[in-house]
Hints:
The protein is mostly helical and 116 residues long. It has one domain. The protein is 73% helix and 0% strand. It has helices at residues 3-16, 27-48, 50-56, 60-68, 76-86, 91-104, 108-115.
Amino acid sequence: MSALAERQAALVAALVAGAPIPDGFDPRLIDTARQALLRKRSGEVARHWPLLAASFGTKWPAVFAEWADGRPTQGSFQDGLALARSLTLAGAAAEELAEREAALRPGFLRRVFRRG
């Protein structure tokens, strides 16, 4: 791996995975970029998990950022699933999680279409 590729990988790891900030980068600017990426991720997860996000109202971006900070993304759906599973949910958010988990079980679609 070239020196440039190594520095780029270290920068990405600092931005999305909580790795140390590489030498030569302004920690304040790295933190600003990291926070912006967490806000963007929270919006992407909210599109896949609207009831989960709505259950937190205006606190959603902060709740998501606290959970996601230092965790590389596994994709918006998987991030939402992991977050939802880590919480004690009630109401519509709990129903959303239950529906998603049911859909992930093997044979779910076969059972649904057999009923119709």
